[in-house]
Amino acid sequence: MLFIDFSSAFNKIIPQHLIEKLSLLGLDTSLCKCILDFLTGRAQSVRIWNSLSSTTTLSTGAPQGCVLSPLLFTLLTHNCAAMHSSNHIVKFADDMTVVGLISKNDESAYRGEVQRLTAWCKANSLSLNIDKTKDMVADFRRAQSDHSPLFIDGSPVEIVKSTKFLGRHLAENFTWSLNTTSITKKPQQRLYFLRRLRKAHLPPPILTMFYRGTIESNLSSCITAWFGNCTISDLKTLQWIVRTAEKIIGVSLPSITDMKEAEQWIHHQKKEAEQWNHHQSKQVEQWMHHQRKDVEQWNQWNYNQRKKVE
């Protein structure tokens, strides 16, 4: 698995190239022009206290922190797809991962995929940060051999035993102990502040609010992805934090299992809402189609009547 890191991904977007791809995707011309106008000729300055820098006009890249930027980058990379059936490219905004299945020690398809991806990045003016790009090999064979590194533009890619992906730690053996250790660090530190707040005689509702915002949110992050493969020891470590917080606040709190079930319920509700919205949009489209047909028939009838009068 190759975890790719781009150098200033959003800043490297060429608006003209993006608009060409949006046009090929079938976006309306007026919408493409609106996006091009949004990305080009942007005035930018920096204010620090009462000091204001001179204004610079930018016509490349997408604004950092803008809701539209991740979507535009996703559309820019939509045609970056795996060429070989044994490979798969996973994309989430500017995070990209190449996953390859290597059989019979034949790495040609995987290495070829990486070379094609490198060429695609150059053609689209995107730069890879080789120092932060990592390669992780999941090898469950009894007789394991040394793995030769990948090379991108003549530079070797570091082979790691674990890496951080979308905020979670992945290990080469697909266990979650390292992830559990990472998850519990911040909550353990914030238990100290929870104790300080209790000593300040804050009421339980305020303490519970602090717990949910700073501790439970960390414990439940991506819980549906890793909970099922956690060891009993890992679950006990996580549950210990919940029980400690309960003793400090003096109220009952949702267990780790409750958090997982709540996240699954929320995910299920989101899926149902998406399906309902899709169904409703289809009905609206059908209604509008019938309305247009009725208008066309009325216009045709009206035209025929005028012809008869003439």
Task: Describe the protein's architecture and organization.
The chain is 52% helix and 14% strand. The protein has helices spanning 15-24, 29-39, 68-76, 108-123, 177-199, 204-219, 223-226, 232-249, 256-309, and strands spanning 2-4, 42-44, 47-48, 51-52, 56-58, 87-92, 95-100, 134-136, 151-152, 155-156, 158-160, 162-165, 168-171. The strands form five sheets. It has a five-stranded mixed beta sheet, covered by helices on one side. A two-stranded antiparallel sheet has the order 2-5. The longest helix has 54 residues, at 256-309. It is extended, with a radius of gyration of 27 Å. The model has no long low-confidence stretch (mean pLDDT 87).
Q: Strand order, biggest sheet? A: 6-7-1-8-11
Secondary-structure element string: EHHEEEEHEEHEEEEEEHHHHH
- In terms of structural class, how would the helical and strand content be classed? alpha+beta
| Helix count from the secondary structure assignment | 9
Largest sheet: 5 strands, mixed
If you average the pLDDT, what whole number results? 87
Low-pLDDT stretches: none
Q: How helical, in percent, are the residues?
A: 40-55%
Which percent band covers the strand fraction?
Answer: 5-15%
Number of distinct beta strands? 13
The radius of gyration computed from the alpha-carbon positions, rounded to a whole number of angstroms, is 27 Å
Principal-axes geometry comes out as extended
